[in-house]
Amino acid sequence: MEYESYYFVKFQKYPKIVKKASDTAENNLPQRSGGKTRRVTSDSCQNLPKISQQRPRSKTTVGKPGGAKPLHREHPKQELVNHTHKESADFGLSISGINKGSGEENIRPPKGQIIDFRGLLTDAIKGATSELGLNSFDCNPDPSERLLKPLSAFIGVNSEMRELAAVVSRDIYLHNPNIKWNDIIGLDAAKQLVKEAVVYPIRYPQLFTGILSPWKGLLLYGPPGTGKTLLAKAVATECKTTFFNISASTIVSKWRGDSEKLVRVLFELARYHAPSTIFLDELESVMSQRGTAPGGEHEGSLRMKTELLVQMDGLARSEDLVFVLAASNLPWELDCAVLRRLEKRILVDLPSQEARQAMIHHWLPPMSRSCALELRAELEYSLLSRETEGYSGSDIKLVCREAAMRPVRKILYALENQQSESSSLPGIQLDTVTTADFLDVLAHTKPSAKNLTQRYSAWQSEFESV
Ligand code: ADP
C-alpha cells in the first residue's frame, strides 16, 4: 500500500503489482548467512513481484518489460542494507516479504526487526529529490512541479475511499499554471481583493486573526471570458497552496451516492494537503438552486449539494487553511445557501476601455513574431478600444487572432497554389494588419455577453459584499 501510494504521488496512477507465475528461479535465491543481510541482486529478484505497469518517464528500470528490477532498500536505521544515498536515487523499493513460500526466509528481515515503510517512503521521495539535485523534501522542489504528501495516511484501508481520493487527486494542479498577476490585463480591483482574501492570509497569518480571520469562501462572478479562471490560475501560481481545480465533472458521478462521497473526500483531501485552495469552476452547474429542476430534483443531487454546504460550514468553523474559490457566469442561478457561505463576492466585469486597449496592444503589438515570420500591425489602438465596447477579454483575443490570420491566410493561399513542391518561407513578407482589417473582423464577431451586463449590475447591487 505504501509503495502504491508513493507511486501514485509520483505518477498519478496506481501500479499493478503482480506475482510472477513461474517458479524456475525460486530456488536460486542466495542464502543469507550468519544473520547478515546481503543485498539481493536484480537477477535473484525474479520471483519477487514485478511492477507490470510501464513508468511514464523515468530513468529507472522499474516496470520495464522483461527487465523489472525492484531494488532492495530497507530503512537506513535498521542497518540491514549498507546502501548509499546514490542507491536511493533509484527510488527502488524492496517488496520483500510479499512473496510467500518462495525463499521468503531469505528476504524477510530477521524476527523482531521492523521495516519502517513510512521512513522508506520518505527516503524514496528524498531520493527522488536528490536525483533532481535537491537536498531535502520540499513541498515545491521544482517551482513548476508540486510533490504531494503520500496518500497512505489519508486513505487508511478503505479501498472505496482510495478510489474516490484518486478521482479527486487527478484535479490537483501538480504543475504550476504559470499565470502571474501581471499577465492579467486590467481587473485591478478584482486582483487586489483576491490577493487580500487568499494570498495575504497565507503569507502573513499573524495579521489575519480575530475579526480579520481569513475569508473561507470567495465567489468570482461575471460574464464568460473575462478572466475568472485566469485569476484562479494566478492564485495557484502565486500562492504555494495545493490547488484543487474542480469542475462539475469531478464531483458529479453517475453512481448514486458517489457525488456526495466525492465532495466529502475532496474536503478531507484539501485538509490533508493544507494549505489548500479548492477552485470550483462553473459553480452554477453543481450548486443551482435546489428544487428548481424540472420534474423534481434527483435525490442524489440534493444530497451532494447538502454535503457541499455541510463541508463549507465545517470549514467556516475550523482553523484549517482551506479556502474555497468559486467562479460562476450565472450567479442568479446559485442556491442562496451557498451564496451565504461564499462570504466575499467579486464582480469580474467586462474590460474597461483602458484594459481593452492594453489587450489589443498585447495581442497585436506593432511588431511581433507570432509565427515563423514577422507580423506587423499598424493599428489605431485607442479607436479600436472604443469600438470593442462590450467585448470580453476572450472575445478581444479572438478578434486579434482572426485579424492576424488574414495576412497569414494570403500567404497560405499563395503557397498552396504555387507550382513547385517547396513550401519554404524565406523571403516572404506578411502584409501588415491594419485598423480596417480589425474593424472588418469586429463586424463579424459579436460580443458574447453584452446583453447580460445589466443583469450582472442588478445582481451586484443586490448581493455583492463590500
Ligand atoms: P472565464 O471568466 O470564463 O473563466 P477565462 O479566465 O477562462 O474566462 O478567460 C478566457 C481567456 O480569455 C483567457 O485564457 C485569456 O486568454 C483571455 N482573457 C480574458 N480576460 C483576460 C484578461 N483580463 N487578461 C488577459 N487575458 C484575458
Shape: globular
Quote the beta fraction: 5-15%
Ligands: adenosine-5'-diphosphate
The radius of gyration over CA amounts to 28 Å
Order of strands in the sheet with the most strands? 4-5-6-3-7
List low-confidence stretches. Answer: 29-109, 124-141
CATH superfamily of one domain: P-loop containing nucleotide triphosphate hydrolases
State the assembly state of the protein chains: single chain
CATH class of one domain: Alpha Beta
User: What do the pLDDT scores average to?
Assistant: 71
Structural class: alpha/beta
Largest sheet geometry: 5 strands, parallel
Let me know the number of strands: 10
Helix content: 25-40%
Describe this structure as you would to a colleague:
The longest helix has 25 residues, at 393-417. With 466 residues, the protein is of the alpha/beta class. Among the domains are: 151-350, P-loop containing nucleotide triphosphate hydrolases (Rossmann fold); 353-418 and 426-448, Orthogonal Bundle (Helicase, Ruva Protein, domain 3), CATH 1.10.8.60. Helix content is 39%, strand content 8%. It has helices at 2-11, 85-88, 104-107, 117-131, 152-155, 159-169, 188-203, 228-238, 248-251, 258-272, 299-317, 336-341, 353-363, 381-387, 393-417, 435-444, 453-463; strands at residues 17-18, 50-51, 217-221, 242-246, 276-280, 322-328, 344-347, 367-368, 375-378, 433-434. Helix 13 packs parallel to helix 15 (393-417). It is globular, with a radius of gyration of 28 Å. The protein is built from 17 helices and 10 strands. The model is unreliable at 29-109 and 124-141 (pLDDT under 50). The strands form 3 sheets. Strands 4-5-6-3-7 form a 5-stranded parallel beta sheet, sandwiched between helices. A 3-stranded mixed beta sheet has the order 8-9-10. The two termini are 49 Å apart. The protein binds adenosine-5'-diphosphate (ADP). Residues 184-187, 224-230, 327, 393-394, 397 line the site of adenosine-5'-diphosphate (ADP).
